[in-house]
Amino acid sequence: MTTKTINLVEALAHERDHGVLIWLFNIGAEQVWHPSPRKGGMVDRDEQQVVNRMEEMNLLLCRSQDVIVLREYPDEAFLDMLQRLGFSLPRIEVPEPSDPLTPISELVLADEALLARLRTVADAGHSSSGAKAWLVPYAVTPQEEAIAELCGLELIGAPSAVSAQVNDKIFSRLTAQKLGFAVSEGAVCTDESAIRRECARLADLSDGPVKLIIKQPHGASGQGMYMLDELSKLDTLLSVMRRFGGSSPSSGGWLVERWHNKQMDLNYQLCIDEGGGVTMFSLKRQNVDGTVYIGSQVPAEIGDALEEEVRRCAYQLGTYLYSIGYTGMASIDGFVDEEGLLVPVIEINGRFTLSTYISFLSSVLGEQHKTLSRYYRNVTATPLTYSRLCGLLAEEGLLYTPERPEGVFVYTAGTLSGIPVKRGYVNRIFTLILADSWQEADAYAHKLEGIIAGLGCS
Protein backbone atom coordinates (compact mmCIF):
# COMPACT_ATOMS: atom_id res chain seq x y z
CA MET A 1 0.00 0.00 0.00
CA THR A 2 1.11 3.60 -0.55
CA THR A 3 0.53 6.76 1.41
CA LYS A 4 -2.29 9.08 0.35
CA THR A 5 -3.73 12.38 1.55
CA ILE A 6 -1.22 13.16 4.29
CA ASN A 7 1.83 15.40 4.35
CA LEU A 8 3.99 14.03 7.13
CA VAL A 9 5.83 17.29 7.71
CA GLU A 10 2.57 19.19 8.12
CA ALA A 11 1.13 16.46 10.34
CA LEU A 12 4.11 16.70 12.69
CA ALA A 13 4.67 20.45 12.63
CA HIS A 14 1.22 22.03 12.26
CA GLU A 15 -1.72 19.67 11.68
CA ARG A 16 -1.03 17.56 14.75
CA ASP A 17 -4.64 16.44 15.11
CA HIS A 18 -4.72 14.94 11.59
CA GLY A 19 -4.99 11.16 11.32
CA VAL A 20 -3.35 8.41 13.34
CA LEU A 21 0.29 7.50 12.78
CA ILE A 22 1.51 4.06 13.81
CA TRP A 23 5.24 4.32 14.44
CA LEU A 24 7.79 1.53 14.07
CA PHE A 25 11.55 1.98 14.61
CA ASN A 26 12.86 -0.92 12.53
CA ILE A 27 16.53 0.02 12.65
CA GLY A 28 18.76 -2.47 10.85
CA ALA A 29 16.82 -2.35 7.58
CA GLU A 30 20.11 -2.40 5.62
CA GLN A 31 20.61 -6.04 6.57
CA VAL A 32 17.16 -6.83 5.13
CA TRP A 33 17.74 -4.90 1.89
CA HIS A 34 21.31 -6.07 1.40
CA PRO A 35 21.91 -9.18 3.54
CA SER A 36 25.52 -9.96 4.31
CA PRO A 37 26.28 -13.35 5.91
CA ARG A 38 29.63 -12.10 7.16
CA LYS A 39 28.13 -9.05 8.80
CA GLY A 40 25.37 -11.12 10.36
CA GLY A 41 27.94 -13.34 12.04
CA MET A 42 29.84 -10.40 13.53
CA VAL A 43 27.04 -8.68 15.45
CA ASP A 44 28.06 -7.46 18.91
CA ARG A 45 25.01 -8.66 20.83
CA ASP A 46 25.66 -6.34 23.77
CA GLU A 47 25.82 -3.28 21.54
CA GLN A 48 22.87 -4.41 19.43
CA GLN A 49 20.60 -4.57 22.47
CA VAL A 50 21.36 -0.93 23.19
CA VAL A 51 21.03 0.11 19.54
CA ASN A 52 17.58 -1.48 19.35
CA ARG A 53 16.42 0.65 22.28
CA MET A 54 17.15 3.84 20.36
CA GLU A 55 13.53 3.30 19.32
CA GLU A 56 12.53 5.57 22.21
CA MET A 57 13.66 8.70 20.36
CA ASN A 58 10.65 8.08 18.11
CA LEU A 59 8.53 9.34 21.02
CA LEU A 60 9.75 12.87 20.19
CA LEU A 61 7.57 12.78 17.03
CA CYS A 62 4.41 11.21 18.42
CA ARG A 63 1.03 12.89 18.88
CA SER A 64 -1.49 11.86 21.53
CA GLN A 65 -3.71 9.95 19.06
CA ASP A 66 -0.80 7.98 17.62
CA VAL A 67 0.37 4.42 18.33
CA ILE A 68 3.99 3.38 18.77
CA VAL A 69 5.29 -0.17 18.83
CA LEU A 70 8.27 -0.62 21.15
CA ARG A 71 10.10 -3.79 22.11
CA GLU A 72 9.99 -2.73 25.78
CA TYR A 73 7.87 -0.31 27.80
CA PRO A 74 9.90 2.83 28.59
CA ASP A 75 11.13 3.92 32.00
CA GLU A 76 8.33 5.80 33.76
CA ALA A 77 10.77 8.56 34.76
CA PHE A 78 11.51 9.18 31.07
CA LEU A 79 7.81 9.25 30.14
CA ASP A 80 7.18 11.67 32.99
CA MET A 81 9.93 13.97 31.74
CA LEU A 82 8.48 13.94 28.22
CA GLN A 83 5.06 14.92 29.54
CA ARG A 84 6.50 17.65 31.78
CA LEU A 85 8.25 19.17 28.77
CA GLY A 86 5.05 19.16 26.71
CA PHE A 87 5.50 16.10 24.49
CA SER A 88 2.36 14.08 23.79
CA LEU A 89 2.44 10.43 24.74
CA PRO A 90 0.90 7.99 22.25
CA ARG A 91 -0.59 4.58 22.92
CA ILE A 92 2.35 2.22 23.48
CA GLU A 93 2.20 -1.35 22.21
CA VAL A 94 4.77 -4.02 23.07
CA PRO A 95 4.84 -7.29 21.08
CA GLU A 96 4.49 -10.54 22.97
CA PRO A 97 6.76 -12.31 23.27
CA SER A 98 9.48 -9.71 22.96
CA ASP A 99 13.24 -9.98 23.20
CA PRO A 100 16.13 -7.50 22.92
CA LEU A 101 17.66 -8.79 19.68
CA THR A 102 14.96 -9.99 17.25
CA PRO A 103 14.12 -7.24 14.71
CA ILE A 104 11.02 -5.37 15.82
CA SER A 105 9.05 -6.06 12.62
CA GLU A 106 9.59 -9.80 13.05
CA LEU A 107 8.20 -9.51 16.58
CA VAL A 108 5.14 -7.66 15.28
CA LEU A 109 4.49 -10.21 12.53
CA ALA A 110 4.68 -13.05 15.08
CA ASP A 111 2.14 -11.44 17.45
CA GLU A 112 -1.36 -12.16 16.11
CA ALA A 113 -3.03 -10.26 18.96
CA LEU A 114 -1.02 -7.12 18.23
CA LEU A 115 -1.76 -7.39 14.52
CA ALA A 116 -5.45 -7.62 15.39
CA ARG A 117 -5.25 -4.47 17.51
CA LEU A 118 -3.54 -2.61 14.69
CA ARG A 119 -6.24 -3.83 12.28
CA THR A 120 -8.82 -2.33 14.64
CA VAL A 121 -7.06 1.04 14.40
CA ALA A 122 -7.05 0.77 10.60
CA ASP A 123 -10.71 -0.32 10.49
CA ALA A 124 -11.75 2.69 12.58
CA GLY A 125 -10.13 4.93 9.99
CA HIS A 126 -12.16 3.36 7.22
CA SER A 127 -15.42 4.52 8.82
CA SER A 128 -16.89 7.89 7.98
CA SER A 129 -16.24 9.28 11.46
CA GLY A 130 -12.88 7.62 12.17
CA ALA A 131 -9.36 8.99 11.83
CA LYS A 132 -7.41 7.39 9.00
CA ALA A 133 -4.28 5.50 10.05
CA TRP A 134 -0.85 5.23 8.43
CA LEU A 135 2.09 3.00 9.25
CA VAL A 136 5.29 5.07 9.56
CA PRO A 137 8.38 2.86 9.78
CA TYR A 138 12.00 3.93 10.10
CA ALA A 139 12.50 2.24 6.72
CA VAL A 140 10.41 0.21 4.28
CA THR A 141 11.39 -3.42 3.71
CA PRO A 142 9.17 -6.37 2.76
CA GLN A 143 8.47 -6.91 6.47
CA GLU A 144 6.82 -3.52 6.94
CA GLU A 145 4.92 -3.99 3.68
CA ALA A 146 3.58 -7.27 5.12
CA ILE A 147 2.49 -5.54 8.35
CA ALA A 148 0.65 -2.85 6.38
CA GLU A 149 -1.04 -5.46 4.18
CA LEU A 150 -2.09 -7.68 7.09
CA CYS A 151 -3.47 -4.75 9.07
CA GLY A 152 -5.10 -2.81 6.22
CA LEU A 153 -2.86 0.22 6.84
CA GLU A 154 -1.59 2.81 4.41
CA LEU A 155 2.21 2.81 4.38
CA ILE A 156 4.28 5.99 4.36
CA GLY A 157 7.34 5.38 2.24
CA ALA A 158 8.46 4.03 -1.11
CA PRO A 159 8.15 0.35 -2.07
CA SER A 160 10.88 -1.76 -0.50
CA ALA A 161 12.63 -2.43 -3.81
CA VAL A 162 12.95 1.30 -4.52
CA SER A 163 14.08 1.97 -0.96
CA ALA A 164 16.80 -0.67 -1.32
CA GLN A 165 17.93 0.92 -4.59
CA VAL A 166 18.19 4.38 -3.04
CA ASN A 167 20.05 3.20 0.07
CA ASP A 168 23.27 2.60 -1.80
CA LYS A 169 26.33 4.85 -1.75
CA ILE A 170 27.13 4.11 -5.38
CA PHE A 171 23.58 5.14 -6.31
CA SER A 172 24.11 8.36 -4.32
CA ARG A 173 27.28 9.25 -6.21
CA LEU A 174 25.90 8.39 -9.65
CA THR A 175 22.72 10.36 -8.93
CA ALA A 176 24.71 13.42 -7.84
CA GLN A 177 26.75 13.22 -11.05
CA LYS A 178 23.63 12.79 -13.17
CA LEU A 179 22.16 15.95 -11.63
CA GLY A 180 25.36 17.93 -12.25
CA PHE A 181 26.27 18.33 -8.57
CA ALA A 182 29.86 18.64 -7.39
CA VAL A 183 31.21 15.31 -6.08
CA SER A 184 34.44 14.21 -4.44
CA GLU A 185 37.27 13.26 -6.76
CA GLY A 186 37.12 9.48 -7.11
CA ALA A 187 35.46 6.60 -8.90
CA VAL A 188 33.33 3.46 -8.62
CA CYS A 189 35.62 0.41 -8.60
CA THR A 190 34.41 -3.08 -9.46
CA ASP A 191 37.40 -5.06 -8.19
CA GLU A 192 40.65 -4.80 -6.23
CA SER A 193 42.70 -3.95 -9.32
CA ALA A 194 40.46 -0.97 -9.97
CA ILE A 195 40.75 0.09 -6.32
CA ARG A 196 44.55 -0.02 -6.58
CA ARG A 197 44.55 2.04 -9.79
CA GLU A 198 42.19 4.68 -8.40
CA CYS A 199 44.10 5.00 -5.12
CA ALA A 200 47.33 5.49 -7.08
CA ARG A 201 45.69 8.06 -9.36
CA LEU A 202 44.29 10.07 -6.44
CA ALA A 203 47.63 9.91 -4.64
CA ASP A 204 49.35 11.35 -7.73
CA LEU A 205 46.87 14.25 -7.72
CA SER A 206 47.53 15.09 -4.06
CA ASP A 207 49.81 18.01 -3.20
CA GLY A 208 50.20 16.81 0.37
CA PRO A 209 49.71 13.69 2.47
CA VAL A 210 47.45 11.05 0.96
CA LYS A 211 44.05 10.66 2.62
CA LEU A 212 41.42 8.55 0.90
CA ILE A 213 38.23 6.76 1.86
CA ILE A 214 37.05 3.45 0.45
CA LYS A 215 33.33 2.80 0.87
CA GLN A 216 31.23 -0.32 0.64
CA PRO A 217 27.92 0.65 -1.03
CA HIS A 218 25.76 -0.59 1.85
CA GLY A 219 25.92 0.02 5.56
CA ALA A 220 25.03 2.61 8.19
CA SER A 221 26.73 4.48 11.05
CA GLY A 222 30.15 4.40 9.45
CA GLN A 223 30.13 0.66 8.75
CA GLY A 224 31.88 -0.46 5.59
CA MET A 225 34.07 2.66 5.35
CA TYR A 226 37.86 2.40 5.38
CA MET A 227 40.31 5.29 5.71
CA LEU A 228 43.67 5.14 3.91
CA ASP A 229 46.43 7.63 4.79
CA GLU A 230 49.41 5.84 3.17
CA LEU A 231 49.50 3.85 -0.07
CA SER A 232 51.86 1.41 1.64
CA LYS A 233 48.97 0.34 3.86
CA LEU A 234 46.67 -0.56 0.96
CA ASP A 235 47.50 -4.29 0.92
CA THR A 236 46.66 -4.60 4.60
CA LEU A 237 43.47 -2.59 4.15
CA LEU A 238 42.34 -4.74 1.22
CA SER A 239 42.90 -7.84 3.36
CA VAL A 240 40.68 -6.37 6.08
CA MET A 241 38.03 -5.49 3.49
CA ARG A 242 38.03 -9.03 2.11
CA ARG A 243 37.62 -10.43 5.59
CA PHE A 244 34.89 -8.15 6.87
CA GLY A 245 33.31 -6.58 3.80
CA GLY A 246 32.80 -9.50 1.47
CA SER A 247 33.91 -9.56 -2.13
CA SER A 248 33.45 -6.46 -4.23
CA PRO A 249 31.42 -7.99 -7.11
CA SER A 250 28.78 -9.46 -4.81
CA SER A 251 28.35 -6.19 -2.91
CA GLY A 252 28.07 -4.06 -6.05
CA GLY A 253 31.56 -2.63 -6.09
CA TRP A 254 33.33 -0.03 -4.00
CA LEU A 255 33.72 3.73 -3.97
CA VAL A 256 37.19 5.24 -3.74
CA GLU A 257 37.15 8.98 -3.02
CA ARG A 258 39.45 11.72 -1.83
CA TRP A 259 38.94 12.63 1.81
CA HIS A 260 38.25 16.33 2.35
CA ASN A 261 39.27 18.63 5.17
CA LYS A 262 35.76 20.05 5.33
CA GLN A 263 34.58 23.45 6.47
CA MET A 264 31.35 21.84 7.60
CA ASP A 265 29.25 18.68 7.35
CA LEU A 266 25.57 19.17 6.55
CA ASN A 267 22.38 17.16 6.80
CA TYR A 268 18.95 18.02 5.47
CA GLN A 269 15.67 16.16 5.36
CA LEU A 270 13.36 15.69 2.38
CA CYS A 271 9.70 14.76 2.38
CA ILE A 272 8.43 13.71 -1.06
CA ASP A 273 4.66 13.40 -1.28
CA GLU A 274 2.53 11.26 -3.59
CA GLY A 275 2.02 14.16 -6.01
CA GLY A 276 5.74 14.81 -6.35
CA GLY A 277 5.82 17.77 -3.97
CA VAL A 278 9.24 18.16 -2.34
CA THR A 279 9.67 19.73 1.09
CA MET A 280 13.16 20.33 2.49
CA PHE A 281 13.33 20.85 6.23
CA SER A 282 15.61 20.71 9.25
CA LEU A 283 18.94 21.78 7.75
CA LYS A 284 21.62 20.97 10.33
CA ARG A 285 25.35 21.28 10.71
CA GLN A 286 26.61 17.83 11.64
CA ASN A 287 29.32 16.90 14.10
CA VAL A 288 31.15 13.87 12.74
CA ASP A 289 33.99 11.85 14.23
CA GLY A 290 35.67 10.51 11.10
CA THR A 291 32.74 8.76 9.44
CA VAL A 292 30.47 8.42 12.50
CA TYR A 293 27.72 10.92 13.38
CA ILE A 294 28.00 12.22 16.95
CA GLY A 295 25.63 15.20 16.95
CA SER A 296 24.08 18.21 15.23
CA GLN A 297 23.76 21.99 15.46
CA VAL A 298 20.39 23.70 14.92
CA PRO A 299 19.91 26.24 13.44
CA ALA A 300 22.69 25.58 10.96
CA GLU A 301 23.44 29.31 10.39
CA ILE A 302 25.36 28.74 7.16
CA GLY A 303 24.42 32.02 5.48
CA ASP A 304 21.53 32.86 3.18
CA ALA A 305 23.36 32.25 -0.10
CA LEU A 306 24.64 28.80 0.85
CA GLU A 307 21.30 27.79 2.32
CA GLU A 308 19.55 28.83 -0.88
CA GLU A 309 22.00 26.70 -2.88
CA VAL A 310 21.31 23.71 -0.62
CA ARG A 311 17.57 24.19 -1.10
CA ARG A 312 17.93 24.35 -4.87
CA CYS A 313 19.90 21.10 -4.90
CA ALA A 314 17.47 19.47 -2.46
CA TYR A 315 14.48 20.26 -4.68
CA GLN A 316 16.31 18.97 -7.75
CA LEU A 317 17.26 15.77 -5.93
CA GLY A 318 13.75 15.22 -4.53
CA THR A 319 12.21 15.69 -7.98
CA TYR A 320 14.59 13.09 -9.42
CA LEU A 321 13.89 10.61 -6.61
CA TYR A 322 10.17 10.99 -7.25
CA SER A 323 10.75 10.26 -10.95
CA ILE A 324 12.15 6.80 -10.07
CA GLY A 325 9.26 6.02 -7.72
CA TYR A 326 10.61 7.20 -4.36
CA THR A 327 8.26 8.91 -1.89
CA GLY A 328 8.34 9.52 1.86
CA MET A 329 11.22 10.68 4.03
CA ALA A 330 14.86 10.87 2.98
CA SER A 331 17.82 12.15 4.96
CA ILE A 332 20.69 13.60 2.91
CA ASP A 333 24.32 14.14 3.94
CA GLY A 334 26.55 16.67 2.22
CA PHE A 335 29.43 19.00 3.05
CA VAL A 336 31.30 22.17 2.19
CA ASP A 337 34.92 21.44 1.29
CA GLU A 338 38.08 23.27 2.33
CA GLU A 339 37.74 25.72 -0.56
CA GLY A 340 34.07 26.54 0.10
CA LEU A 341 32.58 24.26 -2.58
CA LEU A 342 29.22 22.72 -1.73
CA VAL A 343 29.05 18.96 -2.27
CA PRO A 344 25.29 18.62 -1.69
CA VAL A 345 25.02 14.82 -1.79
CA ILE A 346 27.48 12.30 -0.43
CA GLU A 347 24.86 9.90 0.87
CA ILE A 348 21.12 9.52 0.34
CA ASN A 349 19.41 7.71 3.20
CA GLY A 350 16.07 6.57 1.82
CA ARG A 351 14.63 6.24 5.30
CA PHE A 352 14.57 8.07 8.60
CA THR A 353 17.90 8.69 10.35
CA LEU A 354 18.65 9.57 13.97
CA SER A 355 18.73 13.20 12.82
CA THR A 356 15.12 12.96 11.57
CA TYR A 357 13.78 12.22 15.04
CA ILE A 358 15.07 15.53 16.42
CA SER A 359 13.76 17.58 13.50
CA PHE A 360 10.47 18.76 15.02
CA LEU A 361 11.51 19.87 18.51
CA SER A 362 10.35 23.43 17.90
CA SER A 363 6.74 22.18 17.72
CA VAL A 364 7.02 21.43 21.45
CA LEU A 365 9.97 23.37 22.87
CA GLY A 366 9.72 26.54 20.75
CA GLU A 367 12.14 28.03 18.23
CA GLN A 368 14.11 30.41 20.41
CA HIS A 369 16.85 27.95 21.33
CA LYS A 370 20.30 27.29 19.98
CA THR A 371 20.41 23.50 20.02
CA LEU A 372 23.30 21.06 20.05
CA SER A 373 22.71 17.34 19.98
CA ARG A 374 25.46 15.23 21.50
CA TYR A 375 25.86 11.47 21.58
CA TYR A 376 28.14 9.58 23.98
CA ARG A 377 28.92 5.88 24.12
CA ASN A 378 30.38 4.45 27.29
CA VAL A 379 30.52 1.47 29.63
CA THR A 380 29.90 1.93 33.34
CA ALA A 381 30.76 -0.40 36.19
CA THR A 382 27.29 0.05 37.72
CA PRO A 383 23.86 0.60 36.14
CA LEU A 384 23.16 4.08 34.80
CA THR A 385 19.43 4.80 35.03
CA TYR A 386 17.54 7.73 33.59
CA SER A 387 16.69 9.04 37.05
CA ARG A 388 20.29 8.83 38.20
CA LEU A 389 21.61 10.65 35.15
CA CYS A 390 18.99 13.40 35.37
CA GLY A 391 19.73 13.71 39.08
CA LEU A 392 23.41 14.28 38.38
CA LEU A 393 22.53 16.93 35.79
CA ALA A 394 20.15 18.65 38.21
CA GLU A 395 22.80 18.73 40.95
CA GLU A 396 25.11 20.63 38.61
CA GLY A 397 22.39 22.99 37.38
CA LEU A 398 22.38 21.49 33.89
CA LEU A 399 19.01 19.74 33.62
CA TYR A 400 16.51 21.21 31.15
CA THR A 401 13.08 21.54 32.82
CA PRO A 402 9.85 23.48 32.18
CA GLU A 403 10.81 25.78 35.06
CA ARG A 404 14.31 26.29 33.70
CA PRO A 405 14.07 25.87 29.91
CA GLU A 406 17.77 25.68 29.12
CA GLY A 407 20.40 23.05 29.68
CA VAL A 408 20.55 19.34 28.92
CA PHE A 409 17.66 17.07 27.95
CA VAL A 410 18.41 13.32 27.79
CA TYR A 411 16.04 12.03 25.12
CA THR A 412 16.22 8.26 25.51
CA ALA A 413 16.21 6.04 28.59
CA GLY A 414 16.25 2.53 27.14
CA THR A 415 19.77 3.10 25.75
CA LEU A 416 20.99 3.40 29.34
CA SER A 417 21.51 -0.29 29.87
CA GLY A 418 20.46 -1.85 33.13
CA ILE A 419 21.58 -5.29 31.97
CA PRO A 420 25.11 -6.42 32.91
CA VAL A 421 27.25 -7.59 30.00
CA LYS A 422 30.83 -8.82 29.76
CA ARG A 423 32.38 -5.36 29.91
CA GLY A 424 30.04 -3.80 32.44
CA TYR A 425 26.92 -1.79 31.53
CA VAL A 426 26.77 -0.51 27.94
CA ASN A 427 25.24 2.96 27.54
CA ARG A 428 24.49 5.25 24.65
CA ILE A 429 23.63 8.68 26.01
CA PHE A 430 21.63 10.89 23.62
CA THR A 431 21.39 14.51 24.74
CA LEU A 432 20.04 17.81 23.51
CA ILE A 433 21.70 20.97 24.80
CA LEU A 434 19.43 24.00 24.54
CA ALA A 435 20.56 27.56 25.26
CA ASP A 436 20.06 31.18 24.23
CA SER A 437 23.52 31.46 22.64
CA TRP A 438 26.17 29.17 21.16
CA GLN A 439 28.57 30.29 23.87
CA GLU A 440 26.17 29.10 26.56
CA ALA A 441 25.48 25.87 24.66
CA ASP A 442 29.21 25.13 24.43
CA ALA A 443 29.58 25.81 28.16
CA TYR A 444 26.79 23.34 28.93
CA ALA A 445 28.42 20.78 26.63
CA HIS A 446 31.76 21.15 28.42
CA LYS A 447 30.14 20.62 31.82
CA LEU A 448 28.16 17.65 30.48
CA GLU A 449 31.36 15.99 29.27
CA GLY A 450 32.81 16.43 32.76
CA ILE A 451 29.81 14.69 34.31
CA ILE A 452 30.01 11.77 31.88
CA ALA A 453 33.76 11.45 32.49
CA GLY A 454 33.00 11.32 36.21
CA LEU A 455 30.76 8.29 35.76
CA GLY A 456 33.86 6.12 35.47
CA CYS A 457 33.04 5.29 31.84
CA SER A 458 35.29 3.81 29.23
From TrEMBL:
Gene Ontology MF terms: ATP binding; metal ion binding
Keyword ATP-binding annotated: yes
Extent of the signal sequence: none
One Pfam family from the record: PreAtp-grasp
InterPro entries on file: ATP-grasp, ATP-grasp_PylC-type, PGM1_C, PreAtp-grasp
Residue span(s) of domain ATP-grasp: 173-377
Thylakoid recorded as keyword: no
Gene3D superfamilies: ATP-grasp fold, B domain
Keywords of the record: ATP-binding, Nucleotide-binding
Protein name per UniProt: ATP-grasp domain-containing protein
Organism per entry: Paenibacillus polymyxa
